[in-house]
Specification:
Layout: H1 8-14, E1 44-45, E2 55-56, H2 58-71, H3 76-83, H4 96-100, E3 110-111, H5 112-126, H6 131-145, E4 153-154
Antiparallel strand pairs: 1-4, 2-3
Helix pairs in contact: 2-3, 5-6
Length: 155
Amino acid sequence: MLAQDKSFYADLYSKTVPAKPLPSPPSMVARTENLPVLVENPRKIEAPKAAGHGKLSPRQMVTLSLDLYIAGALSFEDYAELAFQPELHPDFDATIGALTGEKAEPDRPRDFVRLWQDKAEFQRRHNNERQDLIEQSERIADVLSKIKSPANVLI
């Protein structure tokens, strides 16, 4: 068996590509005719309308959690926890649902304040050494419990 000369590999990585000149920057004169107007319609964060006081579907919670993050009511870590709704995943029934015996119902309203309080209680009982998880669950439950419908948060 003969070894083949592979010197072309060195050329492949050692050649320098001539740099293309950068496009000239746009003029510094402010052009407002094509810019969106951001001040005319300030965005209100409102708890989506759902059956029952304080109950939202997982689909609605994703939207509300983003609004709360943008408004500064949630840190990014809290937002990531709250926005993650497993029932929205298309394989929920075949994965988590197969283990729990439940079908995905992403449009069924739930009491998320109660869910996060229960999660904090679960962390206290079974994961007591992780105070950060307990505090995060309590913090999220606290933020959600303070939302009235409609909320008067403007961004």
